[in-house]
Amino acid sequence: MDLCRAHSPRLAGPAAAEPLWGAMSGILGIFNTDGHAVDRHLLASMARAMSCAGPDGQCQWVHREAGLAHALLRTDGVVPPTPQPLSFDGVTRAVVDARLDRRAELAAALAVAGRRVRDDASDEQLVLHAWHAWAARCVEHLHGDFSLIIWDSLHRRLFAARDRLGIRPLYWAKLPGCVIVGNVQQSLALHPDCSSRLNQQAAADFLLEGCLRDPHATFLADIRRLPPAHCLTLDGQLRLSCYWTLHEPAPLRYRRGEDYVHHFRHLLEAAVADRLPRGPVSVLMSGGLDSTSVAAIARRVAGAQGRLEAHTVIHRGLRPDAEERFALSAAAHLGIPVHFLCADEYRLCESGGSICEPACDALGQISNDLLRRASRRTRVALSGDGGDVIFLYPLGAHLRRLLARKRYAAAARDLAHYVRAFGGLPRPLLPRLSRWLGLGPTSPDLRQWRRTDLPQRADGRAVAEDWCRAQAAGALLDPFWPAVFEQEHPGYTGVPVEVRYPLLDLRVVEFVLAIPAVPWMLNKHLLRRAMRGLLPRCVRLRPKTPAGDLIRPRLLRGDMDGAGELQSQQIHTIIDARRVGPPRPDQHPVVRDLALRTVLLDRWLAQRQPRPAPEMGVFCHA
């Protein structure tokens, strides 16, 4: 057995003075199916590519046909982080990237299963305890954000899994003589048997949809993505299985409206508390309701001594917005500092993406730089993402559904609920009627520019149940969200900050899906009521404000004037790029976004270079 522990540098900045505990991790495993021993130098070389996800130290373990590697990103403070790869018995070893919810509930279930768990057990230790108690069914007991790789050397069994919503990434590849698994895609791509061949179907999805619709696909043909709520097992045969989906929860009804508000606030406080580190924390805060609500609850939970600060993107000259004014108002009310990043000077298509994937957003460099600024003081950032999804319930679609089923009394009742909650009918009514009835302008069909020799493929997961919140549940399970999470993961951004999403805590999600949609979901009525006394009135009652067009003003000022011709010939095998044309300010926004994604994909394809052979590292012996 071989073991290597790399040097762990101290964290620079204000948090360096105290011991650190809690970690986000880069994890990697190589499992040879041909009986050969794992090349420990290859493992070490591939592990070095995880330094973006874990800059605070690495460790590798090799035993015969299996090898595991771990890269540490320290995010918390109190006691030293749990060493990984982790083992209780020397037989089963695990590398885990986890932040668990419902720890007390899990510890109680483990005690019933006969496991003796220390009160101060880390999340990684709880995951391994769960494996020993329930084997592959352990994932049914784990709640939170996680990806994990477990090797049972006695039974020569590999088990890997990803959390329910796909907040932590996990990738795998079946190569000649081995299976590799990890949460940093570029480390897998360094295996000498992993080709750099492009997955053309994935590239076409990216161009036409803005994300990969196949939850198994990546841009590299040899590397697969483990979908959310899925497990991978290798025990002679390789199998994938789904362990969870979002079902309709049992309806929850209270007599008093305030009971809904109190219950929701209690769950949101628990979700934020489970995501707060014991050190400084940032909030990625706009001037909107979702992120300011997360900041308000974080301030309430952490108390006056909590080291909380906000980071906000604003525009001043290019396209003036109100985010600065509302963010200042919220920060002053909460008593926290706010740091502004003025994005006026950012140009289109500046971000080149990662080694394995192109940038998915023409202005993605803005969010990367916001995280980079936050990383100067903290390793954890809270996000308000998810609020628009879990509260999704447009009144027009609701009334159409009831009228189509001839439930006229229910439609009249819910419209009366709306009037009582909001003081009148939606205004202006006539423009909304056209949208409610499915009228109004339509978007161009982008498939007309797709190369016909590429096979057509159905869309990704959908919610089977036909219940009143099916639209919200379907949006939550859409492949768009795992793509968002992965693009904010340190393995993609290269920034040592872990982003956490309190509004997507499943306790919050299931509660919101169980209560009456009218009036609580309309106009985020529940969240606005819950924030009474916590946010200034101007922020709490601010109408939903679209982000606005950030692309057209940049095209008008000439951001893409010197872009030149497309450089990659491969782009023309995927889409008729000449018919699409370059991005122009007069294009329909849907066509313009397609043209921008074409530029992003072309630049990524053009900059891909033949991969050098992996550098052989030095491996220490235990």
Describe the protein in words:
With 622 residues, the protein is of the alpha+beta class. 34% of the residues lie in helices and 16% in strands. The protein is built from 23 helices and 17 strands. The protein has helices at residues 40-48, 103-112, 123-134, 185-189, 200-209, 257-275, 289-302, 323-334, 364-374, 387-390, 395-404, 408-422, 429-436, 470-476, 480-487, 490-493, 506-514, 517-520, 525-530, 537-540, 552-556, 577-580, 589-607, and strands spanning 2-5, 23-32, 58-63, 66-74, 92-101, 143-152, 157-162, 171-175, 178-182, 224-225, 230-234, 238-242, 281-284, 308-314, 338-342, 380-383, 498-500. The chain has a seven-stranded antiparallel beta sheet with strand order 1-3-4-2-9-8-10. It has a five-stranded antiparallel beta sheet with strand order 5-6-7-11-12. Strand 11 (230-234) and strand 12 form a beta hairpin. Helix 6 packs across helix 7 (289-302) and helix 7 (289-302) runs parallel beside helix 8 (323-334). The longest helix has 19 residues, at 257-275. The radius of gyration is 25 Å and the shape is globular.
